[in-house]
Recover the amino acids of this structure.
């Protein structure tokens, strides 16, 4: 089904399937499963069974389902699964603003809407490109591991900034932020790579957050407390500013 076109008129073939496990997680699942087998061989059942269930949990954490990505250049799709925990007006990080010597000037200075998506250990942790274009920057910054749900995590935690520019000059910056349990951010892309909207660009291990910096003049189409799906949920529509209210029920 990967690569198949499905549309809003019902054309295409959609069916449920088991999600695959990303290669980055298979080694961890196999390691835990091997430890479970060793404990079972030694008749340490009190350890063997919990480790067996843990191996299934690890494989589930690294699940990598297919997503149907809206094909509309006006749309900015969510780069992460999870809960919209913060929507604020902020200056983008300096790493996305300054001229880094590559010839790409970076984002323009000035406050923009930042949408923060918190990923619990139960969410899919594969991150995807919010727009299609050229990867202009991938900037890794070591840091702390405070709760990723806190606003200060954007400036204090281990994080990685990614900047993508479309051929028409529209650029989106977003940041992968490690959390309390997360200890590694894994990139799948590098500067100069061409990516499509919704393409996999990296993952964060075990609980984390992604911040998306929308272009000036663009508001969020999701509301605080909403659950979003990477590559599928429309986070914003370019140039559209509006207030959308949600009811917690």
């Amino acid at each position: 089904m990967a690569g198949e076109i499905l549309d809003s008129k019902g054309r295409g073939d959609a069916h449920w399937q088991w999600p695959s496990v990303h290669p980055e997680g298979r080694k961890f699942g196999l390691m835990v499963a091997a430890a479970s087998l060793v404990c079972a061989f030694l008749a340490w059942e009190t350890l063997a069974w919990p480790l067996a269930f843990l191996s299934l949990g690890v494989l589930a954490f690294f699940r990598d389902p297919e997503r149907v990505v809206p094909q509309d250049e006006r749309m900015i799709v969510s780069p992460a699964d999870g809960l919209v925990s913060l929507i604020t007006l902020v200056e983008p990080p300096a790493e996305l603003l300054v001229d880094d010597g590559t010839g790409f000037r970076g984002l323009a200075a000035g406050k923009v809407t930042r949408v923060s998506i918190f990923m619990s250990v139960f969410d899919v942790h594969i991150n995807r490109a919010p727009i299609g274009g050229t990867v202009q920057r991938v900037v890794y910054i070591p840091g702390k591991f405070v709760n990723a749900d806190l606003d200060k995590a954007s400036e204090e935690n281990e994080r990685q900034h990614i900047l993508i520019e479309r051929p028409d000059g529209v650029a989106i910056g977003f940041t992968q932020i490690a959390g309390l349990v997360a200890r590694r951010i894994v990139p799948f892309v590098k500067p100069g790579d061409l990516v499509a909207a919704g393409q996999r660009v990296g993952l964060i291990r075990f609980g984390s957050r992604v911040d998306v910096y929308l272009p000036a003049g663009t508001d969020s189409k999701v509301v605080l407390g909403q659950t979003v799906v990477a590559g599928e949920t429309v986070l914003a529509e370019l140039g559209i500013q509006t207030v959308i209210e949600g009811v917690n029920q």
Residues 23-41 form the longest helix (19 residues). The two ends are 35 Å apart (CA to CA).
